[in-house]
Amino acid sequence: MLAMKDTIKAIEDAGIRDKVKIMIGGAPVHQEFADEIGAEFYARDSTAARNLAREAIAGKV
Which residues contact 53 (CB under 8 A, 6 or more apart)? Predict the structure, then answer.
């Protein structure tokens, strides 16, 4: 999970943070962690991630 925070930092350092949306999820993480590291989206499992990605692409979230 620590690598997720480092990855977001690397994206920021590369100057492309405003060009991407970040989704994390799965059993070891939760919404509060997503908020803490700056991820825009959290999904509890792969099915929820797929559905959330579809909604995000459609501009519904």
Answer: 23, 41
pTM value is 0.86
**Domain 2-57, second-level architecture:** 3-Layer(aba) Sandwich (3.40)
- How far is Cα 18 from Cα 20, in angstroms, rounded to an integer? 6
pLDDT digits (tens, 9 = 90+) for 31-57: 999 999 999 999 999 999 999 999 999
In sequence order, the β-bridge partners of residue 18 are none
Say which residues have a Cβ less than 8 Å from residue 37's Cβ, sequence separation at least 6.
4, 5, 8, 24
Cα 50 to Cα 14, 45, 55, distances in angstroms: 27, 9, 9
Q: Residue 16 is encoded by which pair of tokens?
A: 């492309």
